[in-house]
Amino acid sequence: MYLLPENPTREIPLALVLFIYVLTVVYFMKRAYMYMLKKGFKRNVAVYYNRKFIHILAGGVVAFITPYIFTSPLIPLIFALVIAVILYIPHYKSQELSWFQVEDNAYEVNFCIAWGLSLFVVWVILKNPYYAIIPPLFMSLGDAVTGIVRNAVYGKRTKAWTGNIAMLAVTLTIGYYYTGIHGIIPAVLSTIIEHFEIPPLLDDNMLIAAVSTTSLIFCKLFF
Questions:
Q1: Above 80 in pLDDT, residue 199?
Q2: Segment 62-117, tens digit of pLDDT
Q3: What is the spatial distance between Cα 2 and Cα 83, in angstroms, rounded to a whole number?
Q4: Within the chain, what is the greatest distance between any pair of CA atoms?
Q5: Between helices 61-69 and 8-38, what is the axis angle to 10°?
Q6: Could you state, in order of their start, the residue ranges of all structural domains in the chain?
Q7: How confident is the model at residue 2, as a pLDDT?
Q8: Which segments within 57-186 are labelled E, that is strand?
Q9: Rounded Cα distance, 119 and 83, in Å
Q10: Number of neighbouring beta carbons within 10 Å of residue 31
Q11: Scanning 2, 8, 46, 86, which has its CA 20 to 30 A from the CA of 145?
């Protein structure tokens, strides 16, 4: 498995299509935000739902597709970092995209960085693109389900364990599907670590990516 893509003339255009898709999802969710406000949702609730929907529709969908169209983790990493920069610019200008960004943190930027780096590291070390998408999927789907459940139950951003129970069902399914029993420990550890964060810089996205990446590599190499 080489670091450079085998067919860049095919993979770069496909990456551009996914790049446009992600940006379309981000901007389309403004409609969802306005709809939720009209239905009486509080702004913080609508924003939090949107963040999790973007996790699923952007991060999750792209992660699922990645092994089928890319022969190297380099292009996905580069585009993930480009999107991170794009999302950071509104924060830098203090002109946050109100339908999913908040002034208190830039966790969606961390998400993009963690998504790309975790995929890259696992792919390079384990030389398997299907293993590589496990940490991004834990972040995109597992963390999203956690947030959606908490938002529905409590109506605010919280770290209640109720969400972690829902996340465990998702991460166990993903981990076992792609790696069998080797995916169980990363799934459990990622679900537990999601409950914690060290604001404003080290959020659950970074923690999930770090823990799932290291534990997955350890389990695959030594068990």
A1: no
A2: 999 999 999 999 999 999 999 999 999 999 999 999 999 999 899 999 999 999 99
A3: 24
A4: 53
A5: 170
A6: 8-222
A7: 65
A8: none
A9: 15
A10: 10
A11: 86
- The answer to whether 53 and 35 are in contact (CB under 8 A) is no
Q: Measure the CA–CA gap between 199 and 94, rounded to whole angstroms.
A: 19
| pTM over 0.90, yes/no | yes
Our measurement of the distance from residue 140's CA atom to the centroid of its chain's CA atoms, rounded to an integer in Å, reads: 3
Residue keyed to tokens 């166990």: 172
Can you give the three-state secondary structure of 60-78, one letter per residue? HHHHHHHHHHCCCCHHHHH
Dist. CA 140–CA 50, nearest whole Å: 13
Task: Let me know: does 174 contact 134? Beta carbons within 8 Å.
Answer: yes
User: What is the Cα–Cα distance from 149 to 221, expressed in whole angstroms?
Assistant: 34
* Token code pair at residue 15: 């990456």
What does DSSP assign to residue 223?
A: -
At 12, list the tokens: 């770069």
In the structure, how many helices (H) and strands (E) does the chain have? 11, 0
Residue 180 DSSP label: G
